[in-house]
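Schema walk-through. Below, the input block comes first and the output block second. Nothing else is stored per chain. Lengths vary across the set, and this one has 388 residues.
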Amino acid sequence: MASASSSLRKWAWVHKWSSIVCTAFMLLLCITGLPLIFHEEIDDLLHEQVKAAVVPEGTPLVDLDRAVARGLAAAPKTVAHFLIWDPDDANSLLLSVGPSIEANPTDNRIIRVDAHTGAFLDAPDVTKRFTYIMLKLHTDMFAGLPGKLFLGFMGILFCAAIVSGIVVYAPSMRKLDFGAYRRERPRIVRWLDLHNMAGILLVIWMLVVGFTGVINTWADLVIKIWQFGQLAEMTSQYADRPLVTQPASLTAAVATAQQAQPDMKPAFVAFPGSIFSSKSHYGIFMRGNTPLTAKLLRPALIDAVTGKLTDTRNLPWYVATLLVSQPLHFGDYGGMPLKIIWAVLDIITIVVLITGLYLWLRRRQSGSSVERMLAATQAASHDPVLTS
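--- output ---
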C-alpha cells in the first residue's frame, strides 16, 4: 500500500511539473491553432484574390513551361524553386520563387497563375496576413529551427503530463463515477473535477494532436535526413554534375512522371538545385486520389538534361509519418465537419489548461491551506492525492 502511494506521488510530481513548464506554451499553441483550423475560410473572408477563369471540366492545363515563364516575368530577378498544383483551386498554379536557387525557400514569394491560360493572377504578400502570423507563432514563434525544437520539447512535456494525469486520475475511478462533478464541494474541488473530467474525455485526442505536433516540429530535420539519405542515393551517379540552368521541357518531364505513375497526379515540382531535388533533376512529387493517399507523396526524378526518368520510389517511413501527421494535426482530412470537431476539442483543451493553471496558482497563493483542504476533501471521498 505504501509502495503504491509512493508511486502515485511520483506520478503526481511528474504531472505537476510537466504541466507547469508547458502550460503557457500549450495555451499559445491552442489559441493560435484555433484560427489555423479555418485558415482557408479566414483568408477567403479577409483577402480578395484574382479568380482564375472558369473552364469546362476536362479542359487541358496550359503548357507548364509557359506558365512558369509568365510567373517569372511578374517577378524579375527571381528563380523558380517549386511549381505547385493549388490543392484548394484546380484552376490555378502556384509558383514559389526566390532570389537564387540557394536561397531559403521559407522566404520565397508565391505567384499565382491561371492553370489553363498561364495568365498571371496575383502575387499576394502573405507575411502580413493574420493567418500567417498565427502560423509562425504556432510553428516556431518567429525563432526558426530553435523555436520549432523548443515547441517540440514543450509538446513532449504535454504528452508526459497527459500520461501521468491518466495514472494519477485512475485510482479515483474506483470510488467516484466517471466524470464526477461535485457541485456541493468548495470551488477548488469543483475546478479540480472540471480539469479531470475534461482531461480524461479528451485524452486520446490530446495525445494524437500533441504527438503529431511534436513530429511536425522535426520537419526540417526529417527533410535533411531524406536529402542525405534516399535522395542522395537516387542521384549518386549524377553527384558531379553542375547545376542545370537551361533544363529540358517541364511539361514533358511531368508527362514522363505521370506515365511512370498513371494512378497518381502531380502535387508539386522541385526545380533543379532546390532542396527537394538534385542539381540536375526535376523532382516531381506525385500524390494519390483519396483524402489519405493525397497526403502521401512519391517522388519521380526526371533528368533535367535528357528528360528521362532516373528513379522513382516510395518515401521512407519517417517522411511518410511526417506527411500524415501534418493534416491530422489540423483536422484537414474530413472537410468542414471535422474542422468544427477539431475546433470544439481545441476549446475544451484550453479549458483543461486554464483549470490546471488555476489550480496551481491557487496553491501558490494559499500555500499549505489549499493542500490541507484538498487532502481532507479527497480523504472524505477516498480520492487519491492529486497535486496538479
